[in-house]
Amino acid sequence: MAINDDSGVGSSGGRLPLVRVTRKSRETDIEAELRLEEGEISIATGIGFLDHLVTSLAYHAGWTLALSCSGDIAVDDHHSAEDCAIVLGVAFREALAVLRDQPGFNELCRFGHAYAPLDEALARAVVDLSGRPWASVDLHLKRESIGGLATENIAHFLQSFAMNAGITLHVDVLKGINDHHKAESAFKALALALRQAAGRSDGGGQRATPGNSTKGTPVTTVSLIGGQPGDGDGRGGKRP
Questions:
Q1: 88 phi and psi, to 5 degrees?
Q2: Which of 94, 109, 121, 192 could be joined to 176 by an S-S link, Cβ 3.0–4.6 Å?
């Protein structure tokens, strides 16, 4: 599955490039294409309710997104849900980097927050694109599954997305009765918060670069000391 994108991309074509991420294992085979601009959305994870949630996320975040997964659903839905979140998180992280590299780029808002209702359900999402991965998710779901997706994997999807996107994420369902409504309102709130955080700042926002804070940008250096090239001990040369 791929985005039909014949218009030309990048600054010369007036559109951002698509970020393509693939991930293949014995459990799943996944491909994603993402652009942080409104466009075509095509989701086929093999899990009906996950398709519904990710479609809602992409639509309200203002993304162009194709996501396809062939997974070991015969085992259960965990591997497909988790790995789709990993791929989508990596794609979002790289799409932010593409955005920063565009000519004339100034600032992203970095922070975003939003509320989203769905009938009786109300969810809140707060995000920070600072490059500090963290996820706190509390959805208050009661059913075991919705549309082929175990409810425990809904929170896990959001956690895996945040950790691989390198963002701080807090999502809370504040009230609700219907689990479908609660989960969908959470994804819509996240979409709106991400759209705000990835938007261009009016000048009062923070640069969305990893580690940006009053402390400056931390520098971490990793060195290998001792061992001989090719000794295979994991300290130098060959690695397992």
A1: -65, -40
A2: 121
d(CA 40, CA 94): 19
* Residue 193 belongs to a domain: yes
The Cα 108–Cα 112 span in angstroms is 10
pLDDT tens for 160-183 read: 999 999 999 999 999 999 999 999
Burial bucket for residue 189 (CB in 10 Å: 0-12, 13-18, 19+): buried
Residue 235 domain flag: no
Tell me the mean pLDDT in the region 82-96: 97
* Residue 240 lies inside a defined structural domain of this protein: no
Rg of the chain over CA atoms, in angstroms? 19
Task: Characterize the bridge pairing of strands 145-146 and 28-35.
Answer: unpaired
Check if the beta carbon of residue 81 is closer than 8 Å to that of residue 158.
no
In a domain, 212, yes or no: no
CATH number of the domain to which 29 belongs: 3.30.230.40
What SS3 string covers 43-108? EECCCHHHHHHHHHHHHHHCCEEEEEEEECCCCCCHHHHHHHHHHHHHHHHHHHHHHHCCCCCCCE
Report the predicted TM-score, pTM, of the whole model to 2 decimal places: 0.83
